[in-house]
Amino acid sequence: MIDTGKINKHNQEILSPHTKDLDYLKVKVGEDKSNEIIDKLRAFQVAIPSWALGAGGTRFGRFSIGGEPATIYEKLDDIGIIHALTQSAGAVSLHIPWDIPDDAEKVKRHASDLDITFDAVNSNTFQDQNGQPLSYKFGSLSHVQKLTRQQAIDHNKEVIDIGRALGSQSLTVWLADGSSFPGQLNFRKALENTKTSLSEIYGHLPDDWKMYIEYKPYEPYFYSTVIQDWGTSLMLAEACGDKAHTLVDLGHHLPNTNIEQIVATLMYKGRLGGFHFNDSKYGDDDLTVGSIKPYQLFLIFNELVYGMDNNPSNNPDLAWMIDASHNLKDPLEDLMQSIDAILIAYAQALMVDRSSLEQAREYNDVSLAQEILHEAYRSDLRPFVREARSIAGGAIDPIGVYRKAEVRKKLIDKRGSGSRATGL
Ligand SMILES: [Mn+2]
Predict the structure, then answer these.
(1) Which of 50, 75, 92, 207 is the most exposed place for a label (fewest CB within 10 A)?
(2) How far does residue 371's CA lie from ligand 1's centre (Å)?
(3) 120 C-alpha vs ligand 1 centroid, how far in Å?
């Protein structure tokens, strides 16, 4: 549906205005700095979760977009389209049991043909599956009954084995466990059970693997969550061992939480493992990255860039993933918008004049420190992002090519307009 010919043709059509914008920006920023930013943007890859390619829903309903992928192969094909256009989506994050590969070698080959690798695998103990002996209605790794905890532990071990066969090297654990009413749960016992369960899963990790522990303050339960915040996640990660890290999902915070400070703190401890991008206004809204709070996204990247450049505690390379839901827009367009927002924020963070910023801080020059951040944030660096894509063989304007090639229409012709279950 998307081939190099189509991309090149479209790039040629808009090359002249793009080059004009880029040349102007390069003069302003300087040739060396510009090239350094473009190189880093080219190298940046973000994983696409296998559940994000169909229309998402709310608890009130779900409206199909049509042409949605149903099999793991079709999901990879859709990521392949995004990757061909952006050259920044070269990884998939699979969800088990929604996407159990029938034949690991065949799935691996299919992904490899599309230049896609396997990022973290995600376990699921937040819903019951058909034929499952014990229910997770009242929790999984924290459950009051040992047998239910064991079932959830065994599931996570199986997810590691599946990921291993595909070449993945990390497991992400997000627990829905919690309570909706005061008195329902013994907080201490639930946390203790979770720690013991996670340690057993950790023991099954291959040496070159990592485990990411995600946190969330509320939802689906509304009174308490067992792993409610970064501190609890960090405590559990430290209890498990060196291969366990905290995963920050932007939507998993109470309103106005200073997420950039959490990022700085976790990197200082060398325990920031992964990142789930999305945006929100009220709760875990799973909106397009950068659509509501782009300045916050920039401030987060500002800490990430500083943390990656100043890394005495040896924080590992981060696992980046877009964790959004697409209820209104074409998921593929929405994901390309998210990728764009991530790269723009990254470019802006790379633009920050760090030595001047540190100097301003040393002198407690508050206004200047703020001006330095604004200088980077208010610069339009989109030409760098477009150039990075174009050099890598992607489209200067991915959504433009996607629409011109009528990809969604072709997907509907091929797969039908009806709703096809994708898990969520
Ligand atoms: Mn997440």
Answers:
(1) 207
(2) 33
(3) 12
